[in-house]
Amino acid sequence: MNYSTLKKSVALSLVALTGVASLAVAQETPATTSSTKVFGGRGQYRTWSIGVNGGVLAPVVAIGGSNDFNSWDVNLGYGLNIRKQLGHSFSLELAGVRGKVSGSNVATNGPIAPGSATAREFETQLQYAVDLRGVVNVGSIDFLRRENSVGFFVTAGAGYMAYAPKVTYTNGTVVDWKGKAVGPAGDPHEAKDYVKGMYIPVGVGVKFKVSERVNFNLGYTMNFIDADNFDGVYAQGTTKDKFSYGYAGLEFSLGSSAKPSLEWTNPLATMYDDLKDPTLRQEVEALKNRVSAVEKSVEDLKKDTDGDGVADQFDKCPGTPAGTAVDGSGCPLPKMVADTTATSSVTGFEKISFDFNSSVLKTESYPTLDKLSSVLRENGGKVTLNGYASSEGTAAYNLKLSKDRANSVKTYLVNSGVNASQVATKGNGEANPIASNDTEEGRIQNRRVETARN
Fold it and tell me: Residue span of the signal peptide, if any (predicted)?
């Protein structure tokens, strides 16, 4: 197959691929982006794509530089690419291109003399140039819209290529490198049809979103070769050869039609949708309603119609007259004439009893303490509070416990208005029991604080 036939075959293949892809796009349902989340990961997007392209190859680059031939030709090139989108603005792409690169030397001061050995023209068959490059989306002219549709990108990477130059000299000599690269010691079995080497591709481009599945790309790539024999001559031994590829192509997104393409998703719009998710708003409203219901229940629990201090929900005797003493269920307490008489006979110097291993005052001691506070505040004078303990535990612990009991009584008196200088405390531990410590009844009596006038 000659080169012209190959070009026709490739062109037909591109047309066929484009038609199949367009038919597939027309039959599928448009993707929706409403379900994507900011931190949902790449799994919620389409990230793979494959593309075909065609364009022109030339032995020069846009930034200039020295060349071995002063006139260059434009030749057909074509390529394929496979891309993996890793984020909204970055992807990795495996790209390959084939074609022909050619150029010639045109004399600047008249025609070249016949019979000279100056290189007149070259033609290099590019069997392949394959590279892995990073693609960075640098912006969009409609980035404020919900969905981007036009984007600009830059690329850079490293690749491996195979090529065979053919040079024609002014004296008619033709040197074709193809099949002439003989191996060491002239071994013909190591002869290679193509020279192989590394190159660096650097490019820019713009892409247009045709549909949910198809992009139209325009790009330009400068390829810097790590050799000076791409055009078959070493005219500039200290420089490296280069060539460029300007192309147009179609790119087809792969994956489920229910997912959007990651490269066209606007992250700002996704974040807005995530924050304004109607499901989230509904959950917030439902939570507000639940809080309101709880607050109403709390208010109902606090409601006390008769003002007796017991909430209506627990008041077993609603409508109690104001000022009536009630119990925990809201019912009036029975009048205790005997208790009133007993309270009036309290002197304030009765002993104060405590529970086992405790220095907490009992409520039954409050009348005695209140009376003692009244006597000290009205009549002055000083008292000593003697704390005691029963015989359980160690003597050291019981001594401390007896001091704590005496201090509890002093704290109550001081809080009721007695001057602290009127009250002294003393811990006596297990000393001076008033009953036998051999029985529980006796030990109960020994857990006490006694008040003595000074």
Answer: 1-26
- Give the DSSP H or E segment for 80: strand 75-85
**Beta strands across the sheet bearing 383-387:** 352-353, 448-453, 383-387, 423-427
Question: pTM here?
Answer: 0.52
Q: Are 129 and 97 in contact (CB under 8 A)?
A: yes
Which of 55, 97, 62, 89 is closest to 217 using CA atoms?
Answer: 55
Q: Residue 408: phi, psi to the nearest 5?
A: -60, -40
Length of the chain in residues, anyone?
454
Q: What is the DSSP letter of 364?
A: G
- The angle that helices 366-379 and 395-415 make with each other, rounded to 10 degrees, is 60
Strand pairing category for 195-209 and 150-169: antiparallel
* Residue 390 one-letter amino acid: S
Sign of CA dihedral 403, 405, 409, 414: positive
Rounded to 5°, the CA angle 80-85-89 comes to 115
Are β-strands 383-387 and 448-453 bridged in parallel, bridged antiparallel, or unpaired?
antiparallel
**Residue 6 backbone zone (phi > 0: left; psi -120 to 50: alpha; other: beta):** alpha
Integer Cα distance of 106 and 71 in angstroms: 7
Is the distance from CB of 446 to CB of 389 less than 8 angstroms? Answer: yes
| Placement of tokens 């087809």 in the chain | 252
Q: How many CB atoms lie within 10 A of CB 32?
A: 12
Cα distance from N-terminal residue to C-terminal residue, the chain: 129
Strands 423-427 and 383-387 turn out to be: parallel
Q: How far apart are CA 341 and CA 326, in angstroms?
A: 20
Q: Which residue shows structure tokens 């290099």?
A: 124
Give yes or no for a contact between 166 and 177, defined as CB atoms under 8 angstroms apart: yes
Query: What is the Rg, in whole angstroms, of the alpha carbon atoms belonging to the chain?
Result: 50
Cα angle for residues 326, 327, 333 (degrees, 5° grid):
60
pLDDT tier at 323, thresholds 50, 70, 90:
low
For residue range 198-254, what is the model confidence (pLDDT) as tens digits? 999 999 999 999 998 999 999 999 999 999 889 988 765 567 899 999 999 999 999
Alpha-carbon distance values, 359 to 228, 322, 429 (Å) = 100, 37, 13
